[in-house]
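User: Hi! I'm a student and our assignment asks us to look at how structure tokens line up with a sequence. Could you show me two examples?

Assistant: Happy to help. In each example below, the sequence comes first and the structure tokens follow. Example one:
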Amino acid sequence: MKLDAVQKAIGHVFARPELLQQALTHRSYGTPNNERLEFLGDSVLNCVTALALFERFSSLKEGELSRLRANLVRQEALHRLANTLDLGDYLRLGEGEMRSGGHRRPSILADALEAVLAAVYLDAGFAAAKGVIDGLYAGMLAELDPSRALKDPKTALQEWLQGRRMPLPRYALADTRGEAHQQEFEVECEIAGLGLKTRGIGVSRRAAEQQSAQRALELLPKQ
């Protein structure tokens, strides 16, 4: 059963599996869907990540903690986590969304993950939701470097290149998809001095540029 695989991946067995089914149902499929759950899941996620950061980084100020949390809960991070769970394989989508590749769309996957977290909260309470979120974010928190994460990816990439007297990255729009009210942009980041090209996807061109810069940062030589 598909729901069993999701429950195993997140480490929570639902007493009310219909909550998980709803969390995985996009509005294009019908009702009940995951829009309201997404709203609740966003708040639960913000609370748990705020607590994790508060406990881990005792010397950081409020504004710095807020920026770190924003990095952890942004669409790109949620999309990455959703992919580790293969969440797109379990989504219920309308025919139009299915044909257009909605099960791979970052915004749909990010929203679905937030809805799943809300479903866990409704099914078993805050402690259960915190346990799932802590598990999902364990690796990301362990690798979190505040001195780097407090800068947006484009700024961090530019400073890295400037410090080595290398040419700055070039960003180019590679593709635009979706309806006018729900567009997605794909941007390529090219670093000629390293022969490196990465791509990012976002709901705005700026967001896509930031994601492509983040992916470039992850591929930079360690020196």
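Example two works the same way, sequence first and then tokens:
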Amino acid sequence: MNNKQLYSFLDITSLNTTDRTSSIKEFCKSIHLGIDKGFIPAAICVYPNFISIAKEEMQKHKLPIAAVSGCFPASQSFLEVKKLETELALKNESNEIDIVLNIGLFLDGLYEEVVDEIKAIKGMMTNNQVLKVILETGELKNVELIKKASQLAILGGADFIKTSTGKVPVGATTDAVAAICETIKEHLINTNQRIGIKISGGVRTKQDAITYVELVEKKLGKEQLTSKYFRIGASSLANELISSKE
């Protein structure tokens, strides 16, 4: 798989405390420079208050704009607040929404409440808008918990299951990704519905990315390897792919 193919799976992200109008414009400019060289990402991801700026800056290429929502990255607030933030993101024409599964409720075993939260967010979206649910797998201590969280995310209506926010010490691991893939495969066999997977957190090199591509292909087949069903969240990888030789 060449660099441009790998790049096509990337969600290029700016989620910094220091983000501001000027930095988002520079961020978008750097993406345009990559596109001019034939490197086209799957989407770009920003905080909700920067959606309109990103949309305006990316008019020429009309890339999907994703926004984190639901009180990212901790998912610790009232459901009403999470819904309001998502409503504002959607009003600003975000194409994709990334939320974090409520880990506190999950670890307390309140599974129905976990699913209801995700359903509440998904219910605000149209059929052509994508919901990614982040499991924060680094905070889940074994593959059984990761599988259970994956099942709840799917029950809630997730279009994608995502490993990590990138804001905790442990991000994606091969064990976590394998567990998510196994849950997605079970769902595919039972329903003929394919759920996407996004690997995020700690994917820094081309070899890291290839390792996960090969793992996902082994578990879910080549059909999974399109940006509709497979993403990588690794903005640091973007520069390496553009600047390095094939």
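Here is something you could point out in your write-up. Residues 174-191 form the longest helix (18 residues).
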